Protein backbone atom coordinates (compact mmCIF):
# COMPACT_ATOMS: atom_id res chain seq x y z
CA UNK A 1 0.00 0.00 0.00
CA UNK A 2 1.12 3.54 -0.74
CA UNK A 3 -0.73 6.72 0.16
CA UNK A 4 0.43 9.57 -2.06
CA UNK A 5 1.17 13.02 -0.65
CA UNK A 6 -0.28 15.23 -3.40
CA UNK A 7 -1.88 12.72 -5.82
CA UNK A 8 -1.04 14.75 -8.92
CA UNK A 9 -1.16 11.80 -11.31
CA UNK A 10 -4.66 10.86 -10.12
CA UNK A 11 -5.81 14.44 -10.64
CA UNK A 12 -4.37 14.49 -14.15
CA UNK A 13 -6.19 11.30 -15.10
CA UNK A 14 -9.48 12.79 -13.87
CA UNK A 15 -9.03 16.02 -15.86
CA UNK A 16 -6.99 14.55 -18.70
CA UNK A 17 -9.48 15.27 -21.48
CA UNK A 18 -9.74 19.00 -20.69
CA UNK A 19 -6.04 19.46 -19.93
CA UNK A 20 -4.86 17.67 -23.07
CA UNK A 21 -7.32 19.59 -25.25
CA UNK A 22 -6.20 22.92 -23.80
CA UNK A 23 -2.52 22.10 -24.30
CA UNK A 24 -3.15 20.90 -27.86
CA UNK A 25 -4.89 24.17 -28.68
CA UNK A 26 -1.79 26.10 -27.60
CA UNK A 27 0.42 23.79 -29.67
CA UNK A 28 -1.82 24.25 -32.71
CA UNK A 29 -1.73 28.03 -32.36
CA UNK A 30 1.99 28.06 -31.45
CA UNK A 31 1.56 31.22 -29.38
CA UNK A 32 3.62 30.17 -26.39
CA UNK A 33 4.26 33.55 -24.74
CA UNK A 34 1.35 35.79 -23.67
CA UNK A 35 -1.13 33.83 -25.76
CA UNK A 36 -4.89 34.23 -25.47
CA UNK A 37 -5.05 31.69 -22.65
CA UNK A 38 -2.99 33.96 -20.39
CA UNK A 39 -5.49 36.81 -20.51
CA UNK A 40 -8.40 34.37 -20.29
CA UNK A 41 -6.90 32.86 -17.15
CA UNK A 42 -6.35 36.29 -15.63
CA UNK A 43 -10.00 37.14 -16.27
CA UNK A 44 -11.13 33.90 -14.59
CA UNK A 45 -8.81 34.52 -11.61
CA UNK A 46 -10.31 37.99 -11.19
CA UNK A 47 -13.79 36.47 -11.14
CA UNK A 48 -12.73 33.78 -8.66
CA UNK A 49 -11.28 36.30 -6.20
CA UNK A 50 -13.59 39.24 -7.04
CA UNK A 51 -10.41 41.28 -7.39
CA UNK A 52 -9.84 44.13 -9.81
CA UNK A 53 -6.57 42.84 -11.24
CA UNK A 54 -4.95 39.41 -11.58
CA UNK A 55 -1.55 39.46 -13.27
CA UNK A 56 -0.01 36.07 -13.96
CA UNK A 57 3.74 35.56 -13.80
CA UNK A 58 6.48 32.96 -13.97
CA UNK A 59 6.52 31.79 -10.32
CA UNK A 60 5.43 32.58 -6.79
CA UNK A 61 8.94 33.87 -6.14
CA UNK A 62 8.75 36.31 -9.05
CA UNK A 63 5.30 37.34 -7.84
CA UNK A 64 6.88 38.53 -4.58
CA UNK A 65 9.60 40.38 -6.46
CA UNK A 66 7.05 42.07 -8.71
CA UNK A 67 4.97 43.10 -5.71
CA UNK A 68 7.90 44.70 -3.91
CA UNK A 69 9.16 46.36 -7.09
CA UNK A 70 5.69 47.82 -7.66
CA UNK A 71 5.84 49.30 -4.15
CA UNK A 72 9.32 50.67 -4.90
CA UNK A 73 11.08 48.78 -2.10
CA UNK A 74 14.66 50.11 -2.13
CA UNK A 75 18.04 48.93 -0.78
CA UNK A 76 18.13 49.43 2.98
CA UNK A 77 14.35 49.46 3.36
CA UNK A 78 13.03 47.06 5.97
CA UNK A 79 10.26 44.54 5.33
CA UNK A 80 8.76 42.77 8.33
CA UNK A 81 7.96 39.11 7.76
CA UNK A 82 7.70 35.74 9.46
CA UNK A 83 10.78 33.77 10.44
CA UNK A 84 9.01 30.46 9.70
CA UNK A 85 8.36 30.05 5.98
CA UNK A 86 9.85 28.84 2.71
CA UNK A 87 13.05 30.65 1.79
CA UNK A 88 11.45 32.65 -1.07
CA UNK A 89 9.63 34.92 1.38
CA UNK A 90 12.78 36.47 2.82
CA UNK A 91 15.05 35.65 -0.12
CA UNK A 92 13.18 38.04 -2.40
CA UNK A 93 13.48 40.85 0.14
CA UNK A 94 17.24 40.26 0.27
CA UNK A 95 17.51 40.07 -3.54
CA UNK A 96 16.28 43.67 -3.68
CA UNK A 97 18.94 44.57 -1.09
CA UNK A 98 16.22 45.37 1.40
CA UNK A 99 16.38 43.97 4.94
CA UNK A 100 14.12 41.13 6.10
CA UNK A 101 13.04 41.81 9.69
CA UNK A 102 11.85 38.61 11.30
CA UNK A 103 8.99 38.12 13.74
CA UNK A 104 8.14 34.89 15.56
CA UNK A 105 4.98 32.85 14.94
CA UNK A 106 1.84 31.88 16.84
CA UNK A 107 2.08 28.55 18.59
CA UNK A 108 -0.96 26.90 17.02
CA UNK A 109 -1.51 28.47 13.60
CA UNK A 110 2.19 28.70 12.59
CA UNK A 111 1.46 32.15 11.15
CA UNK A 112 3.25 35.38 12.08
CA UNK A 113 2.27 36.62 15.54
CA UNK A 114 0.63 39.93 14.67
CA UNK A 115 0.91 41.10 18.29
CA UNK A 116 4.71 41.14 17.90
CA UNK A 117 4.86 43.08 14.62
CA UNK A 118 4.63 46.64 15.94
CA UNK A 119 7.70 46.18 18.13
CA UNK A 120 9.69 45.45 14.95
CA UNK A 121 8.68 48.68 13.18
CA UNK A 122 11.45 51.27 12.70
CA UNK A 123 11.77 54.45 10.61
CA UNK A 124 13.20 52.23 7.84
CA UNK A 125 10.17 49.91 7.71
CA UNK A 126 8.32 50.15 4.41
CA UNK A 127 6.12 47.04 4.33
CA UNK A 128 4.78 44.03 6.19
CA UNK A 129 4.80 40.69 4.40
CA UNK A 130 2.74 38.09 6.27
CA UNK A 131 2.63 34.52 4.94
CA UNK A 132 -0.59 32.50 4.87
CA UNK A 133 1.29 29.39 5.91
CA UNK A 134 -0.17 25.99 5.09
CA UNK A 135 -3.16 27.73 3.50
CA UNK A 136 -4.63 29.80 6.36
CA UNK A 137 -4.64 33.63 6.37
CA UNK A 138 -3.00 35.59 9.20
CA UNK A 139 -4.67 38.09 11.53
CA UNK A 140 -5.15 40.65 8.79
CA UNK A 141 -7.25 43.02 10.92
CA UNK A 142 -4.41 43.58 13.38
CA UNK A 143 -1.83 43.77 10.59
CA UNK A 144 -3.92 46.39 8.77
CA UNK A 145 -4.26 48.43 11.97
CA UNK A 146 -0.47 48.47 12.35
CA UNK A 147 0.07 49.35 8.69
CA UNK A 148 -2.40 52.24 8.91
CA UNK A 149 -0.83 53.58 12.10
CA UNK A 150 2.69 53.55 10.63
CA UNK A 151 1.85 54.17 6.96
CA UNK A 152 3.13 50.80 5.77
CA UNK A 153 2.19 48.66 2.79
CA UNK A 154 1.01 45.04 3.10
CA UNK A 155 2.03 42.27 0.72
CA UNK A 156 0.43 38.92 1.55
CA UNK A 157 2.58 35.96 0.53
CA UNK A 158 -0.22 33.59 -0.38
CA UNK A 159 1.91 31.00 -2.16
CA UNK A 160 0.05 28.31 -0.22
CA UNK A 161 -3.35 29.95 0.20
CA UNK A 162 -5.00 30.70 -3.13
CA UNK A 163 -8.74 30.30 -2.54
CA UNK A 164 -8.54 30.92 1.20
CA UNK A 165 -10.74 33.60 2.75
CA UNK A 166 -10.54 36.06 5.61
CA UNK A 167 -13.95 37.13 6.85
CA UNK A 168 -15.47 35.48 3.76
CA UNK A 169 -13.37 37.53 1.34
CA UNK A 170 -10.29 36.65 -0.67
CA UNK A 171 -7.12 37.94 0.99
CA UNK A 172 -6.48 40.45 -1.80
CA UNK A 173 -9.24 42.60 -0.29
CA UNK A 174 -7.29 42.93 2.97
CA UNK A 175 -3.90 44.03 1.63
CA UNK A 176 -2.22 46.20 -0.97
CA UNK A 177 -0.94 43.27 -3.02
CA UNK A 178 -1.55 39.53 -2.74
CA UNK A 179 0.72 37.00 -4.42
CA UNK A 180 0.40 33.28 -5.02
CA UNK A 181 2.16 30.31 -6.57
CA UNK A 182 0.94 27.73 -9.07
CA UNK A 183 3.82 25.31 -8.41
CA UNK A 184 2.54 21.80 -9.25
CA UNK A 185 2.03 20.67 -5.64
CA UNK A 186 0.15 23.82 -4.59
CA UNK A 187 -3.64 23.50 -4.12
CA UNK A 188 -4.08 25.01 -7.60
CA UNK A 189 -1.01 23.97 -9.53
CA UNK A 190 0.18 24.04 -13.12
CA UNK A 191 2.70 21.66 -14.73
CA UNK A 192 5.80 23.73 -14.13
CA UNK A 193 6.48 27.04 -12.42
CA UNK A 194 3.82 29.72 -12.32
CA UNK A 195 2.36 32.42 -10.12
CA UNK A 196 0.14 35.47 -9.98
CA UNK A 197 -0.12 38.91 -8.39
CA UNK A 198 -3.50 40.33 -7.34
CA UNK A 199 -4.40 43.90 -6.44
CA UNK A 200 -7.31 46.32 -6.42
CA UNK A 201 -4.97 49.24 -7.12
CA UNK A 202 -4.88 50.35 -10.77
CA UNK A 203 -1.47 52.02 -10.47
CA UNK A 204 0.18 48.95 -8.99
CA UNK A 205 -1.43 46.71 -11.60
CA UNK A 206 -0.22 48.82 -14.52
CA UNK A 207 3.30 48.85 -13.12
CA UNK A 208 3.36 45.09 -12.46
CA UNK A 209 2.19 44.39 -16.01
CA UNK A 210 5.17 46.37 -17.28
CA UNK A 211 7.63 44.93 -14.77
CA UNK A 212 6.90 41.34 -15.80
CA UNK A 213 7.94 42.16 -19.40
CA UNK A 214 11.23 43.91 -18.65
CA UNK A 215 9.59 47.17 -17.61
CA UNK A 216 8.23 47.63 -21.11
CA UNK A 217 5.35 50.06 -21.74
CA UNK A 218 5.42 49.47 -25.50
CA UNK A 219 7.57 47.20 -27.63
CA UNK A 220 11.27 47.95 -27.04
CA UNK A 221 10.45 50.98 -24.91
CA UNK A 222 11.23 50.41 -21.23
CA UNK A 223 9.89 52.60 -18.43
CA UNK A 224 11.28 50.47 -15.57
CA UNK A 225 14.06 48.01 -14.86
CA UNK A 226 11.98 44.83 -14.89
CA UNK A 227 12.02 41.07 -15.18
CA UNK A 228 11.30 38.37 -17.72
CA UNK A 229 8.52 37.02 -15.56
CA UNK A 230 5.63 36.00 -17.83
CA UNK A 231 3.52 32.89 -17.36
CA UNK A 232 3.89 30.44 -20.26
CA UNK A 233 0.74 30.02 -22.31
CA UNK A 234 0.82 26.23 -21.85
CA UNK A 235 0.77 26.67 -18.07
CA UNK A 236 -2.19 29.02 -18.40
CA UNK A 237 -3.96 26.37 -20.46
CA UNK A 238 -3.44 23.78 -17.72
CA UNK A 239 -4.77 26.13 -15.06
CA UNK A 240 -7.81 26.98 -17.17
CA UNK A 241 -8.71 23.29 -17.21
CA UNK A 242 -8.29 22.97 -13.44
CA UNK A 243 -9.84 26.20 -12.18
CA UNK A 244 -13.53 25.30 -12.79
CA UNK A 245 -13.14 22.34 -10.40
CA UNK A 246 -11.07 24.16 -7.82
CA UNK A 247 -13.90 25.25 -5.51
CA UNK A 248 -14.94 21.60 -5.19
CA UNK A 249 -11.36 20.58 -4.49
CA UNK A 250 -11.13 23.14 -1.68
CA UNK A 251 -14.22 21.63 -0.04
CA UNK A 252 -12.70 18.17 -0.38
CA UNK A 253 -9.47 19.36 1.24
CA UNK A 254 -11.46 20.82 4.12
CA UNK A 255 -13.22 17.47 4.61
CA UNK A 256 -9.87 15.66 4.72
CA UNK A 257 -8.57 18.18 7.27
CA UNK A 258 -11.68 17.70 9.40
CA UNK A 259 -11.19 13.91 9.34
CA UNK A 260 -7.63 14.34 10.56
CA UNK A 261 -8.56 16.84 13.27
CA UNK A 262 -11.39 14.72 14.63
CA UNK A 263 -9.51 11.43 14.45
CA UNK A 264 -5.95 12.10 15.57
CA UNK A 265 -5.25 11.37 19.25
CA UNK A 266 -4.63 14.09 21.83
CA UNK A 267 -0.88 13.40 21.88
CA UNK A 268 -0.74 14.94 18.39
CA UNK A 269 -1.02 18.72 18.19
CA UNK A 270 -3.28 19.49 15.25
CA UNK A 271 -3.33 22.89 13.52
CA UNK A 272 -5.73 25.51 14.83
CA UNK A 273 -8.15 27.06 12.34
CA UNK A 274 -9.36 30.52 13.38
CA UNK A 275 -13.15 31.01 13.25
CA UNK A 276 -13.12 33.89 10.72
CA UNK A 277 -10.83 32.20 8.19
CA UNK A 278 -11.08 29.46 5.61
CA UNK A 279 -7.94 27.50 4.87
CA UNK A 280 -7.27 25.70 1.60
CA UNK A 281 -5.05 23.24 3.51
CA UNK A 282 -2.03 23.31 1.24
CA UNK A 283 -0.56 21.17 3.99
CA UNK A 284 -2.01 19.48 7.02
CA UNK A 285 0.83 19.98 9.45
CA UNK A 286 0.88 18.48 12.92
CA UNK A 287 3.40 18.71 15.76
CA UNK A 288 4.83 15.57 17.30
CA UNK A 289 7.67 14.78 19.65
CA UNK A 290 10.21 12.27 18.28
CA UNK A 291 9.35 13.32 14.76
CA UNK A 292 11.97 11.14 13.05
CA UNK A 293 10.59 8.05 14.76
CA UNK A 294 7.02 8.91 13.77
CA UNK A 295 8.00 9.76 10.20
CA UNK A 296 9.93 6.50 9.76
CA UNK A 297 6.92 4.54 11.02
CA UNK A 298 4.71 6.21 8.43
CA UNK A 299 7.25 5.68 5.64
CA UNK A 300 7.44 1.96 6.44
CA UNK A 301 3.64 1.83 6.14
CA UNK A 302 3.83 3.42 2.67
CA UNK A 303 2.65 6.86 3.76
CA UNK A 304 4.52 9.82 2.29
CA UNK A 305 5.13 12.81 4.55
CA UNK A 306 7.17 16.03 4.47
CA UNK A 307 8.68 18.55 6.88
CA UNK A 308 7.62 22.16 6.26
CA UNK A 309 10.10 23.48 7.52
CA UNK A 310 13.09 21.97 9.33
CA UNK A 311 14.95 25.26 9.94
CA UNK A 312 13.67 28.80 10.60
CA UNK A 313 14.93 31.47 8.24
CA UNK A 314 17.16 33.29 10.75
CA UNK A 315 19.30 30.15 11.14
CA UNK A 316 19.81 29.63 7.40
CA UNK A 317 23.42 30.14 6.32
CA UNK A 318 22.44 32.72 3.69
CA UNK A 319 21.08 35.01 6.44
CA UNK A 320 24.16 34.87 8.67
CA UNK A 321 24.79 38.51 7.86
CA UNK A 322 21.66 39.48 9.80
CA UNK A 323 23.39 38.22 12.95
CA UNK A 324 20.33 36.55 14.44
CA UNK A 325 21.26 33.92 17.01
CA UNK A 326 19.70 30.60 17.96
CA UNK A 327 17.14 31.17 20.69
CA UNK A 328 15.99 34.48 19.25
CA UNK A 329 12.72 33.07 17.90
CA UNK A 330 11.90 30.19 20.25
CA UNK A 331 8.42 29.31 19.01
CA UNK A 332 9.62 28.90 15.43
CA UNK A 333 12.72 27.00 16.53
CA UNK A 334 10.64 24.56 18.57
CA UNK A 335 8.13 24.14 15.74
CA UNK A 336 10.93 23.37 13.26
CA UNK A 337 11.87 20.33 15.33
CA UNK A 338 8.32 18.99 15.59
CA UNK A 339 6.29 19.82 12.45
CA UNK A 340 5.25 16.99 10.16
CA UNK A 341 3.00 17.36 7.12
CA UNK A 342 0.65 14.45 6.44
CA UNK A 343 -0.72 13.53 3.01
CA UNK A 344 -3.15 16.23 1.91
CA UNK A 345 -5.04 16.38 -1.36
CA UNK A 346 -8.69 16.45 -2.43
CA UNK A 347 -8.65 12.79 -3.47
CA UNK A 348 -7.61 11.33 -0.13
CA UNK A 349 -10.37 8.94 0.97
CA UNK A 350 -11.77 8.60 4.47
CA UNK A 351 -10.44 5.04 4.58
CA UNK A 352 -6.94 6.33 3.77
CA UNK A 353 -7.11 9.02 6.46
CA UNK A 354 -8.29 6.40 8.96
CA UNK A 355 -5.32 4.19 8.08
CA UNK A 356 -2.99 7.13 8.74
CA UNK A 357 -4.76 8.05 11.97
CA UNK A 358 -4.54 4.48 13.29
CA UNK A 359 -0.76 4.61 13.06
CA UNK A 360 -0.76 7.29 15.75
CA UNK A 361 -2.72 5.20 18.26
Question: Would you kindly provide a brief summary of this structure?
Answer:
The protein is built from 11 helices and 14 strands. With 361 residues, the chain is α/β, with parallel strands linked by helices. It has 2 domains: 8-103 and 110-243, Aspartate Aminotransferase, domain 2; 245-358, Aspartate Aminotransferase, domain 1, CATH 3.90.1150.10.
General description of the model:
This protein has 361 residues and is α/β, with parallel strands linked by helices. The chain folds into 2 domains: 230 residues, Type I PLP-dependent aspartate aminotransferase-like (Major domain) (Aspartate Aminotransferase, domain 2, 3-Layer(aba) Sandwich); 114 residues, Aspartate Aminotransferase, domain 1. Helix content is 36%, strand content 15%. The chain contains 11 helices and 14 strands. Strands 1-9-8-5-4-2-3 form a 7-stranded mixed sheet, sandwiched between helices. β4, α5 and β5 form a beta-alpha-beta unit. α1 packs across α7 and α3 crosses α4. It is globular and about 65 Å long. The two termini are 19 Å apart. The relative contact order is 0.17.
